[in-house]
Write a structure and sequence with these properties.
By secondary structure, the chain is an alpha+beta fold. It is built from six helices and seven strands, in the order E-H-H-H-E-E-H-E-H-E-H-E-E. A seven-stranded mixed sheet has the order 1-2-3-4-5-7-6, sandwiched between helices. Helix 2 runs antiparallel to helix 3. The termini are far apart.
Length: 185
């Protein structure tokens, strides 16, 4: 485990995140290359073809953690889900219409949250998550997590998330992911 030292967590809007894309890519590539994700360079490239589009979303926000020397160690990002979101369509079992109703203010979609291996277990993920959600005001947060990622699933449960279903991401993922919801009210 790396010494935490001073880890600074910065909140960013989409334009700032776009300027820091290399840091987000580095964290993503390292964290998701590990099991159970086993993402390849092609997977990372696909994720970062989506990143600029996501970052242009008007409600996009991100958090980025760095060491004192500026080395990126963790990140989180997402945006409020609009009425036309496909997140609910990816569930393997339908949920009630009231659950899936979106208006652009109700649900924050947490797209990614990751901390590089040497910095895990130091509370950085919790800090990224808390700063990301601070002051945004939705009723709830929705995310997908690979069920084989025991540490991530346990952290989300400890933070108050509950599993509401399973989904195939982007309609094409081989692996089912747990869909988890955090009620903020």
């Amino acid at each position: 485990m790396a010494q935490q030292g001073t880890i600074a967590v910065e909140r960013m809007d989409g334009s700032a995140a776009a300027l820091a894309e290399d840091a987000f890519r580095l964290i993503y590539a390292e964290a998701f290359a590990e099991p159970p994700y086993n993402e390849t360079e092609d997977d990372v490239a696909a994720a970062f073809r989506r990143f600029p589009v996501q970052a242009r979303h008007r409600t996009f926000r991100a958090t980025l953690a760095r060491c004192e020397d500026g080395e990126p160690v963790g990140m989180a990002y997402g945006f409020l889900l609009g009425p036309d979101t496909v997140w609910w369509d990816e569930l393997t079992e339908p949920v009630a219409e009231e659950m899936r109703r979106e208006d652009g203010h109700r649900t924050f979609g947490l797209m990614e949250l990751a901390v590089r291996g040497p910095w895990r277990g130091q509370g950085i993920a919790r800090r990224l998550h808390e700063m990301l959600l601070d002051g945004i005001g939705p009723e709830r947060v929705l995310l997908n997590v690979h069920p084989g990622s025991k540490a991530a699933s346990a952290a989300y449960r400890a933070w108050g998330y509950r599993k509401i279903g399973e989904a195939r991401l982007w309609g094409e993922s081989v692996d089912l992911h747990d869909v988890m919801l955090l009620d903020l009210r």
